[in-house]
Amino acid sequence: MDNIIVIIVGVILVAFIYWFFLMKKSRSVAVDSGQVEIMVSGGYTPEIITVPVGRKTVLNFTRTDESSCLEEVVLGDFNIRRTLPLNQKVAIEITPKTPGEHVYSCGMGMFHGKIIVK
Amino acid sequence: MSEIKKTFPIKGMHCVSCVGLIERSLKEVPGIKTATVNLATNKATVAYDSALVSDDQIQSAVAGAGYQALINEELKSEDEEKVVKQKELKSLRRKVFISLVLGGLIFWGSFPGLMETAPELFRNFWFQLVLATPVQFWIGLVFYRATIPALKHRTANMDTLVALGTTVAYLYSVFVTALPAVVEKAGIEPMPYFDVATLVIGLILLGRYFEAKAKAGTGEAIKKLIGLQAKTARVVRDGREIDIPLAEVIIGDLVRVRPGEKIPVDGVIEDGESAVDESMVTGESLPTDKWSGDTVVGATINKTGSFTFRATKVGSETMLAQIIKLVENAQGSKAPIQRVADTVSAYFVPIVMILAVFTFVGWYVFGGPGALLYAILNTIAVLIIACPCAMGLATPTAIMVGTGKGAEHGILIKDAESLELAHKITAVIFDKTGTLTKGKPEVTDIVVTGELPEDKVLALAAALEKGSEHSLAEAIVAEADKQKLILSPVVKFQAVAGQGVEGVIAEKLYVFGNRKLLEREGIDWLTRKDEIEKLESDGKTVMLLGGGGQLLALLAVADTVKESALEGVRALEKMDIDVYMLTGDNKRTAAAIAGKLGIKNVFAEVLPGEKESKVRELERQGKKVAMVGDGINDAPALAAALVGIAMGSGTDVAIEAADITLVNKDIRSVAAAIKLSKQTMRTIKQNLFWAFGYNVILIPVAMGVLYPFFGWLLSPILASVAMASSSVSVVTNSLLLKRKRIV
To answer: Which of A65, B149, B213, B349 is the most exposed, having the fewest neighbouring CB atoms within 10 Å of its CB?
Structure first.
């Protein structure tokens, strides 16, 4: 009997892990003012931003999470790798030239954010 | 809105009223919140909204008040960052020490075979709980702190796995300690696993400590470059020499450099001469002689002489600042090979969690007697051993070390992709002029045919050519200058179109030019026909000097090959790379130069517009082509090649069309760049193989797949040792790249 319960709970847990981590959908935040505050704690908030093409946008990253995973942010498509000191605002300037999607991540590629250029 | 604060020097302040004036005019700019000017330090600090205010606006506001704001971006000081990092490391070291000592004591009191030697107190479960709790919730807080916000984002990382694994071990142990009878009833010996929870935390933090130390080494190149800059400069202002901070040097300043001093910024020598050691910036090992009119580069060291130079580039415009920017950009870019690791990393942690659930269920259902204990321990082992960090670190650490190492040797790589592509190169095309050769004709031979000695004939030829602007004439005059010869005045100077020049020196008529000119003057040159033809077959231009009805000398001028060219070509051939030379010169001149360098493949008489098609022609033959040129005339060919390599010109290092820029202008660096790429790629592949292999092999072992065959299980403590060492070993392997020789 307990075996069946363990199996059922196991299946539910697997389904939950899959749904919780792999099926999440984030909404994009439109950035028209030329700059956006991005909080770095357990990921990036907002996680997805939409910025206008050809215009300078300043991304202000502030890391409040001690995790060493997040101590660097890498915007590979813009050739930017920057250390984010704890509780300090780090301004990163981008001027995307073409529309498209650019995924950025922490230094180890565990946490991701996305910049949609329209 | 983003408020930023900037401090910069102000030039021209002399009294307290200046302070008020500047502050007022700054505050009038919409978007500037506060402005404070300090007379003692001659600096202004401005807090403003970066969206509304630009540097130009600040500069013009200060200029409007009659002063000058020197907002040249200073190279960033890394000292502050270093102090913070050191503090973090110190705290981490303390935590590692405490958790390993407490964990060790618990281990002594609970490990079968060892526990018998431990004092009674250490064997007491409640005492073990007391020792384990601070490790779990104080030292291990870092894992919870990272896990909770990550879960809010519906993401997970390594900290999540460690937090989960150790919490399971801790809670199970608390349960055993509090209710041993319940556990015993289930057929399990009531033994807590506080040692697992504490030692895992201690060992993983130990791994993190070593990893952080090693990682600091991967970014060393940038720090070294930043450390190269001078702190002060000695400038001549109002006729006086004064020492000022580097940031206050402005374009146009006359800077004095004394023997042994560091040159503060880029500029052009006005007066004096010296040898300058540029190795720190260009990688060129021999000091370069510099005199009036030559450019000097900031952060290089003046050896013997003393000189003054006019500053032409300061702040973020200097060559050093550009190099730093370029290296930073390269280190921020992603290599295509990293994509696989990135994709895997994104799904890795949830997959490991799912595998942990499978492990628990599998062991619980099929584990036989004591299954719950096995299920718990193996689930913890799976959570702990998985190491996504090693995958995440495999490529970027190698790229950082590789690009940094390149910069140290004067090889600037634009991005990680260029570094990755360079290892595939099978053919290298060199543009001839200015790349393989110096691009400037030089006197190569002086054959004396009359009574006058060599220096005398050179002085006569140079005196005649002094007024001419022809590049060959410049070569003659430059050689005379080099030999410090005194040139006599020329009268009745006359240029003979298409033939040469003539003039009277010390009441004697001399002619200097080609054979036709000599024939016109009735001077016989045929006696030296063989020598002339031999020089010409070597690709040289021969000019004849005649005087008093006699042939006095033959002077040969040619664009000479760079000292590094022969070795550079040989190094490539040794690597089985085909070498091609491309030039607009005629076939004879091209063959002469190619012959000297041992280049068998020559594209001669190529028009500038056709260079690109030659690159494509080789690519169509299936070759992976690198094009080496000056970056200006060859831009389309550089862009067409798989890898475009440009020779850095002057102080401009950011050559757009180039994937790799050689600031040392050394041909041997082409082979060195390819070698560096090969070594970096080998390191990346080793790292990825290790990181993937580690996870692919050890996760199943931790799950217990080998148990049915060999009875092998992985203890969670050993899992944490393996996990901690895997990312350390990846970073260490990247650091080994530093030791590899590329030249």
So the answer is: B213
Q: Which of B146, B342, B392 sits opposite A66 (nearest CB)?
A: B146
Chain A residues close to B354, C-beta within 8 Å: 14, 17-18
Give me the DSSP letters along A92-106. EEE---S-EEEEEEE
pLDDT above 70: residue A93: yes
- Residue B111 neighbours by CB under 8 Å, 6+ apart: B195
Inter-residue contact B511 to B546 (CB < 8 Å):
yes
Contact B418, B645 (CB under 8 A): no
Q: Which residue of A has its CA nearest to B362?
A: A7
Distance from CA of A65 to the nearest CA of B (A): 6
Q: Which letter does DSSP use for residue B426 in this model?
A: -
Count CA within 13 A, CB hemisphere, residue B327.
Answer: 31
> Which of B147, B151, B331 is opposite residue A81, by nearest beta carbon?
B331
Asked if the ipTM is above 0.95, the reply is no
For residue B564, give the amino acid letter: S
Phi, psi for B225 (deg, rounded to 5): -65, -45
Q: What CA–CA distance (Å, rounded) separates A81 from B334?
A: 10
Best interface-test mutation with A: which of B54, B333, B372, B395 has the largest number of A CBs within 10 A?
B333
Query: Residues B645-680: pLDDT tens digits?
Result: 998 765 566 567 789 999 888 899 999 999 999 999
Residue among A68, A82, A105 whose CB faces B208 most closely: A68
pLDDT digits (tens, 9 = 90+) for B328-372: 888 888 888 888 887 888 788 999 999 999 999 999 999 887 788
Q: Tell me if the pTM is above 0.80.
A: no
Mean residue pLDDT of chain B comes to 87
Report helix, strand or coil for A50: strand
Closest CA to B100 of B198, B2, B247: B198
| Predicted pLDDT of residue B650 | 54
B740 in Cβ contact with B227 (< 8 Å): no
Token pair belonging to A16: 């939950």
Phi-psi region at B212: left, alpha or beta (left = phi > 0; alpha = psi -120 to 50): alpha
Cβ contact, residue pair A79, B155, below 8 Å: no
Binary contact (B148, A10; C-beta < 8 A): no
Nearest CA in chain A to B355: A14
Nearest-angstrom CA–CA distance, B513 and B518: 7
| C-alpha dihedral, A47 to B389 to A108 to B322, nearest 10° | 160
Identify the three-state secondary structure at position B729: helix
pLDDT level of residue A49 (50, 70, 90 thresholds): very high
Across the interface, whether the CB atoms of A89 and B415 are under 8 A apart is answered no
B627 class by beta-carbon count within 10 Å (0-12 exposed, 13-18 middle, 19+ buried): buried
Beta carbons of B396 and A81 less than 8 Å apart: yes
Binary contact (A74, B396; C-beta < 8 A): yes
- What pLDDT score was predicted for residue B578? 96
**Does the beta carbon of B83 lie under 8 angstroms from any beta carbon of chain A?**
no
Tell me the β-bridge partners of B638: none
Mark yes or no for CB contact B51/A34 under 8 Å: yes
Q: Which residues of B touch A76 (CB under 8 A)?
A: 332-334
- Tell me which residues of B are annotated as active site: 431
Backbone phi, psi, residue B395, to 5°:
-85, -55
Q: How do the domains of chain A map onto residue ranges?
A: 26-117
Size of interface A-B (CB pairs under 8 A): 144
Q: Is the peptide bond before A85 cis (omega within 30 degrees of 0)?
A: no
Question: Which contiguous run of DSSP H or E holds residue B728?
Answer: helix B716-736
d(CA B299, CA B483): 31
Query: Tokens standing for B283?
Result: 């990688």
Class of domain A26-117 (CATH, top level): mainly beta
Q: Counting every residue, how long is chain B?
A: 743
